[in-house]
Backbone:
């Protein structure tokens, strides 16, 4: 299987008054053609920076000191402005987190969906019928009537379906889903996940699914990358990473999942400490200040220890799977 | 008919305030267009025997110090007022709209440069600038329009820039960029419809202000040439004789009040209808 999207040793720094903020450090992610890869991590782990870097829509003060991003074999960090515009939408497309703000409030759904088809040939009517067909496909009742509706007239779940329909309408090779279910309630979450799965089968695109919700990742993805403070700390097939986590951060993250709780507690579990200052990250392992297994060796950069096949963790203490 | 109800005009007609506003504006426009037909007297004809006549069946709003019929002069003055207001607001609005969107969505240095420019212009008091320009340029409507454009486009620019800036980082703009939309496509297809609402209300509310500026410049003697019928000139005449014949001033102010009310109400109705979130009915 060839790679739809390949991120190699990507670093992204932001110039700030306090110095260079190292938002991403040596992150590598590979999404195979037609595969679904999850990225999981708490707020501030660099998920948004990663998305903006993939789209080459980083803020003005961001620099990419090292690394390559290859989309369908083409290095996007070297692509010109024109080529990038072509690639956005056609080859890579995004479903954003908050369906309340990801649609233009003053334009009707139909107008927005027609608008994104500006590259395609065809009459207005043809584009509108394509939009309506896609709205019907994502499970919106009365799709033709909904073309005249404005975003504020739809519920959150409906809007997220519209956003997915818009992203799918472009038939991208890679679809980035940026926490598309976070703003929705649990029943809708399942429906949206199912919808993404179906669309992925139909369009044959690859999905990079970004979330802090472990359950959703486990449900949807083949592989998962665990990120902490701009560093990929563990990667592997979903079952391996969640059942036999190798990195202490992944272990803590799974322990903190409220879905794992078996009895009532007054305080939800959390990881003590807070994210390190990324303008001056600790030497060696990035998780060392919060890790209860840290020893002296952790002050040196941890190796990527292969645990079992494609499953690895960046920790000195990770043990090779016996299973 | 059901399709018409969802067009802008259809929705405006369903709004009593908008109907009232449009009725006033229609009255002003029709009377200005048909001024020659409606006017009971020649607006420039002097009838010294009937100086300072009170309102009567012959002179509906009385006559001025030269015995000219005030009603006929106000009808003619409406032409000038509407012409100046519409031209000046369109030009100033268009300049402000374009510069404002550029400032809001363009690079930082352009924003700073344009803001500096806007603030410099806005710091000038309108009347002082008008007096200065009037001293340099020939007296006439062209000068009035230029003065209004120079003093007011920065206001549109400011409002449009603020609106654009608040949209610049909106997720739907990021989504559009992620879909590969170009700078022009984002500005004209996505930013523009979002800023048009506040822009139109500002423009509609500025129309009467422009009419008063024209009246004010004519009042100061730097507007239209002497003898030309204008609302401002009528007000000035009325002001000179306010102790003996107050109706000249009163009738001179009437069209100004009507125009202010009509355009302000229209602006508010437009704002409610242009922003789909403020619409009461679908």
Residues:
């Amino acid at each position: 299987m060839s790679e739809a999207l390949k991120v190699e040793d990507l670093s992204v720094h932001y110039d700030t008054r306090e110095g260079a903020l190292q938002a991403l450090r040596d992150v590598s992610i590979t999404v195979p053609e037609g595969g679904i890869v999850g990225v999981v991590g708490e707020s501030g782990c660099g998920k948004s920076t990663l998305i903006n870097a993939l789209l080459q829509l980083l803020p003005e003060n961001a620099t990419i000191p090292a690394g390559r991003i290859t989309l369908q074999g083409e290095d996007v960090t070297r692509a010109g402005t024109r080529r990038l515009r072509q690639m956005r939408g056609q080859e890579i497309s995004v479903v954003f987190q908050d369906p309340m703000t990801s649609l233009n409030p003053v334009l009707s759904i139909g107008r927005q969906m027609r608008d994104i088809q500006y590259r395609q040939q065809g009459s207005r009517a043809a584009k509108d019928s394509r939009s309506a067909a896609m709205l019907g496909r994502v499970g919106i009742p009365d799709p033709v009537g909904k073309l005249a509706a404005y975003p504020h007239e739809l519920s959150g779940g409906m809007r997220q379906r519209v956003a997915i329909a818009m992203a799918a309408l472009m038939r991208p090779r890679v679809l980035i889903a940026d926490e598309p279910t976070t703003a929705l309630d649990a029943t809708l979450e399942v429906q949206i996940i199912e919808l993404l799965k179906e669309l992925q089968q139909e369009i044959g695109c690859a999905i990079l699914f970004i979330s802090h919700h472990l359950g959703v990742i486990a449900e949807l993805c083949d592989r998962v990358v665990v990120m902490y403070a701009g560093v990929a700390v563990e990667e592997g097939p979903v079952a391996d990473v969640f059942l036999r986590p190798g990195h202490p951060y992944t272990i803590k993250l799974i322990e903190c999942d409220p879905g794992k709780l078996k009895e009532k507690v007054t305080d939800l579990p959390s990881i003590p400490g807070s994210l390190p200052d990324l303008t001056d990250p600790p030497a060696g392992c990035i998780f060392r200040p919060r890790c209860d297994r840290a020893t002296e060796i952790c002050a040196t950069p941890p190796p990527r220890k292969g645990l079992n096949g494609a499953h690895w963790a960046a920790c000195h203490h990770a043990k090779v799977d016996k299973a | 008919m059901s399709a018409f109800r969802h067009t802008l005009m259809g929705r405006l007609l369903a709004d009593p305030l908008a109907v009232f506003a449009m009725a006033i504006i229609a009255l002003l426009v029709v009377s200005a267009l048909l001024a020659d037909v409606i006017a009971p007297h020649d607006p420039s004809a002097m009838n010294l025997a009937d100086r300072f006549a009170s309102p009567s069946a012959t002179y509906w709003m009385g006559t001025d110090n030269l015995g000219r019929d005030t009603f006929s002069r106000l009808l003619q003055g409406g032409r000038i007022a509407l012409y100046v207001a519409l031209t000046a607001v369109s030009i100033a609005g268009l300049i402000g709209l374009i510069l404002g969107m550029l400032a809001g969505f363009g690079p930082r240095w352009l924003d700073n440069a344009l803001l500096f420019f806007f603030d410099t212009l806005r710091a000038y008091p309108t009347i002082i600038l008008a007096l200065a320009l009037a001293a340099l340029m020939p007296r006439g409507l062209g000068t009035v329009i230029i003065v209004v454009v120079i003093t007011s486009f920065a206001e549109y620019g400011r409002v449009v820039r603020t609106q654009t800036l608040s949209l610049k980082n909106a997720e739907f703009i990021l989504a559009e960029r992620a879909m590969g939309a170009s700078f022009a496509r984002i500005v004209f297809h996505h930013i523009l419809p979002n800023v048009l609402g506040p822009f139109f209300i500002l423009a509609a509310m500025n129309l009467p202000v422009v009419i008063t500026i024209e009246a004010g410049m004519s009042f100061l003697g730097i507007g239209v040439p002497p003898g030309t019928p204008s609302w401002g000139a009528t007000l000035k005449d009325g002001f000179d004789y306010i102790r003996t014949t107050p109706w000249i001033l009163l009738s001179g102010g009437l069209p100004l009040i009507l125009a202010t009310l009509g355009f302000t109400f229209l602006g508010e109705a437009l704002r409610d209808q242009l922003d789909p979130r403020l619409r009461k009915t679908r």
